[in-house]
Amino acid sequence: MEDLKSCRGEIDRIDAQLIPLLEQRMNVVRKVAAYKKAHQLPVLQSGREQEVLQKAVALLQDKDYAEQAVTFMNAVMKISRDAQKRDIGISQAPLPPAASSVVGFYGAAGSFTEQALVEYFGNDQARLGCPEFEDVCKALQAGDILYGVLPIENSSTGAISQVYDLLGSYGFYILGEKRLHIHQNLVGCPDASLESVRTVYSHAQGIEQCTGFLAQHRSWNLVPYHSTAASARRVAEDRDCSQAAIASNHAAELYGLKILQENIQDNQENSTRFIVIGREMQPEGADKVSLVFSLDNESGTLYHTLRYFADHRINLTKIESRPIPDELWNYLFYLDFEGDLDSQEVQETLEQLTKRAKYYRLLGAYRSDK
Fold first, then answer.
1. d(Cα 272, Cα 119) in Å, to the nearest integer?
2. Which residues pair with 346 in a beta bridge?
3. Which pairs from 237-243 meet CB under 8 Å and 24+ separation?
4. Enzyme catalytic residues
5. What is the pLDDT of residues 191-222, one digit of tens each?
6. Which carries the bigger pLDDT value, residue 3 or residue 182?
């Protein structure tokens, strides 16, 4: 016990020496930031950072601590980069409101995608509803909107494959993300009831998220429609008590419908991730990266590629494969990981990946919604 107390006392003494040194370092870092801002220099100086890491290892008396020294110095340099970005004025917040410009979203007014847009940009943001996923991309390509908002994956039903394909075909970038808890409801006309329902409209994802509830009503005709909000709008316009829609509370209120059954989703923790897309990448303040790549169809290629991330202690948050048209049994791999494009470990990993990949494209670096 005395030995433990002694060790703790020694650690406290070392920490008491480290904190003033850290404060001194940060004061110098801010002077460096001022110089870089005045001379329009980038924050990241990768050659300089590699030199710092080599010096740190060289100063060790016990080289067994080399890995810990590199990890420690990488963390210190990450803190320094963030401080420089703050002083230089590089935003680490999500995208600001698009001011007088318009942001496009999938679905009609009252859709979950519109809700994601409002929570990301604010309720005053000018916005345009688009009936199909690709209509958002077409509007962005034509310059009718500044950004677009699309759903990309659901916690219950998985990836929305069409959106991944559109990202690849249009060449847009992911600039941000927003996660929403999704509560699906069966909604109908004011005079409707569960007994009067014969036909249910909703987006295919909405129907799939409510299979348990719908299995209790097998006589109902399930009709996939443009979006959950568009389904609610159709039911309101048709004024038919035999019709119902799977949609949000907001859509029901907006179109004057009654909730016949609330929270009918299978998973009560049901969530959807939405992405903000744009024509140009905006990586400032990013802590998450998305990319797509393809590999030769050979044994071990995917394993060796993913190993680069493990070797650099980079946390992969998602990997999704999509078939490549006209290339039988060949796939595009969509990858999300936590990291900063400015960091040495991310740069080295991407350099190794590009050497192995047949095709590679960075989809975006952006601030994650945690």
1. 14
2. none
3. 239/189, 240/189, 241/188, 241/189, 241/191, 241/192, 241/193, 241/196, 242/192, 242/196, 242/197, 242/198, 242/199, 243/188, 243/189, 243/192, 243/197, 243/198, 243/199, 243/200, 243/201
4. 272, 274
5. 999 999 999 999 999 999 999 999 999 999 99
6. 182
